Amino acid sequence: MPSEEFPRNAKDVIQRALAHILQDSLLEWYGLQLPRIVQAYPPNVPIIDVHEKVLDAVFRTEDGQLLNVEFQSTPVPSLVRLGNYALHLADKYGCSVRTVVIYLSGVRDAVTDEDWGTIRVHVHNVYLANKNAEDAIRRIQRTRPEDWTIYDDLDLAFLPFMGHRDLTQQQLVAQSVDLLPHIPKTHQSYVGALIAGLTSNFLSADMLKSLKEVIRMTELIRQLEEEAIARGLEKGLQQGREQGLQEGLKEGRHDGQLQAAITILRARFGPLSEAVVTELSCLDATDIMRLLLPKILEVSTLDELLAAIRIDKEH
User: How far apart are CA 173 and CA 164, in angstroms?
Assistant: First the structure.
């Protein structure tokens, strides 16, 4: 079954990664007129000093407030949970909190305000069902490859959750998959991963097979790796010695591979403990590429991944 071939928590994976990577572009595409994002924060908030609740995305905006972005597929019955998040964020960072709820699937109305006397909670709701799927399809079909932007990526990735007069959500998923080969090749892998993660519950075996042909994690890994290599190269140049240059390049390549792996792991499993990061940091570049990266999307839990790496290293 398709659900067994794609990670069960793929929806949360893609949503968190999308919010983290796209930041301003995503908010503008949603139609939110909010102050510019200037910093992303770790979305883990201590709750009563007992456990941690992982939020979908937390940012600081240029007006000094925090922005908490939550993704929902069904209407929240009460704002108690979101109000609780806001209170803990305000307590942790010492500033006011703005909450945005993104409704992904068929929701057109949900509670925005609740007043509990001493505490009043207000959230901004965004309903993707209010976006016009027919207009989005026409824009995608008419956009030339040289004019393609990140906003077109978002149109295609979120197409299945928009409103359409005739097509069902499953039919819109099929439409998204059909359009994917016609967009610029440099965007196909990333958008394909977004479609697969957001719509995994609606994918048939044939659609999943089509998406797997274009989904590649290597592009994201390559970009992160190149950024770290560049930092290592700069470090080597500053040292002014040939030996330093080579060491900096080698260090940069290893750091890039490691950062790529950690980025994907955090998207899949949430915050990583210091012990886990330390263990991963002990892997050399060969082990990262041979053992770690290929297994990240194959396992269901972080413990399963670590166990598999340890067994492979022993052999």
Answer: 12
- CA 162: distance to chain centroid? 20
CA–CA separation, 303 and 279 (whole Å): 12
Domain ranges of the chain: 32-130, 133-212, 218-314
**Start-to-end Cα distance in the chain:** 32
Residue located via tokens 């007043």: 115
pTM to 2 decimals?
0.60
Say what the pLDDT of residue 1 is.
39
In 3D space, the residue among 285, 283, 307 whose CA is nearest the CA of residue 295 turns out to be: 307
Q: What is the pLDDT of residues 159-185, one digit of tens each?
A: 988 999 999 888 898 898 889 888 888
- b/e per residue, 281-307, with b = 16+ CB within 10 A? eebebebbbebbbebbeebeebeebbe
**What are 238-286's pLDDT values in tens digits?**
544 445 555 555 565 566 667 767 766 776 676 778 888 888 888 887 7
Sheet containing strand 66-72, strands side by side: 37-41, 57-61, 66-72, 97-103, 124-127
User: What is the rounded CA–CA span in Å between residue 176 and residue 194?
Assistant: 11
**Residue 163 CA: distances (Å) to CA of 26, 69, 134, 137, 179:** 19, 22, 8, 12, 18
| Token code pair at residue 300 | 């269901």
Please say whether the beta carbons of 156 and 64 come within 8 A. Answer: no
| Distance, CA of 172 to CA of 38 (rounded, Å) | 34
Sign of CA dihedral 64, 65, 66, 70: negative
Residue 181 is classified by DSSP as: G
CATH (residue range 32-130)? 3.40.1350
| Residues contacting 165, CB < 8 A, separation 6+ | 134
